[in-house]
Amino acid sequence: MIAPEFFYAAVIVMIGAFLALLRVLLGPSVPDRVVGVDTLNTLIVAGMVLLGAAYDRTIYIDIAIVYALLSYVGTLAIAKYLQGGLE
Amino acid sequence: MSAVTYVIYAFLTINIVFNLLGSFSLHRFPDVYTRLHGATKCTTFGTIFAVLAVVVHAAYQLHLTGDPKYLQMALHSLVALIALLLTNPTGAHAIAKAAHLSGYKPAKAVIDAYEDKLRGGAE
């Protein structure tokens, strides 16, 4: 482990991601769960960038880029499904 | 401990505070729209500072060692930041519009301008 401060920051960000996951599990309505998933995706990208700096691996950051773009596509697909198909 | 270390610690602290605020706002707000407001804004701002901390760290290591790996790390972090900044508000907007169109109304709302606009368009 090269830089422990990045590792501990990533651990705390993952605690926040766990709180968002709790909203996904508890959420009373479907949009609540989608909001939880969206927050979870953002926090996972942040945590992955921090882990890339902590372990000194650039490949983690590349994976974060791909994860951000794919989660965006997923969010848009769920939103379109929720509002009842394409207008 | 150089000055760069303090800058990195400051950026990481801002990142932690805002990301945790965004996560807590999911549990403290009453309905979908306020939760979306709190979570999206706070986590986007926090992630900006996480990436800035990584960029400062990578630039400092590049200055110390001259290894081109760190230049790659800084540039790819910036690409991740740009992707997130473009996609996050768009996704939040899509979720809010889909939630309203599928029938989830704002809790305790007095004025719903989007509902009025939809009604006006239908009549």
Topology:
The complex is a heterodimer of chains A (87) and B (123).
Chain A: H1 4-26, H2 30-54, H3 59-82
Chain B: H1 3-28, H2 32-65, H3 68-101, H4 113-122
Helix pairs in contact in B: 1-2, 2-3
Overview of this protein structure:
The complex is a heterodimer of chains A (87) and B (123). Chain A is mostly helical and 87 residues long. Chain A has one domain: Helix Hairpins. Chain A has helices at 4-26, 30-54, 59-82. Chain B has helices at 3-28, 32-65, 68-101, 113-122. Chain B is an all-alpha fold and 123 residues long. Chain B is elongated and about 65 Å long. The model of chain B has no long low-confidence stretch (mean pLDDT 88). Chain B contains four helices and no strands. At the A-B interface, α1, α2 and α3 of A face α1, α2 and α3 of B. Chain B: This is Cation:proton antiporter. Chain B: The chain crosses the membrane at residues 6-26, 38-58, 70-87. Chain B: It comes from Thermococcus camini. Chain B: One of its GO terms (molecular function) is sodium:proton antiporter activity.
* Count of individual beta strands of chain B: 0
What number is the mean pLDDT of chain A?
Answer: 89
Distance between the termini of chain A: 50 Å
Envelope shape of chain B: elongated
Number of domains of chain A: 1
Stretches of chain A where pLDDT is under 50 for at least 5 consecutive residues are: none
Low-confidence stretches of chain B: none
CATH architecture type of chain A: Orthogonal Bundle
Give the helix proportion of chain A (percent range).
over 70%
Overall average residue pLDDT of chain B: 88
Structural class of chain A: mainly alpha
Structure annotation, total helices of chain A = 3
Binned, the helix content of chain B reads over 70%
CATH level 1 name of chain A: Mainly Alpha
Radius of gyration of chain A: 15 Å
Tally of individual helices of chain B: 4
Please give the largest β-sheet of chain A. Answer: none
Cα-to-Cα separation, first versus last residue of chain B: 68 Å
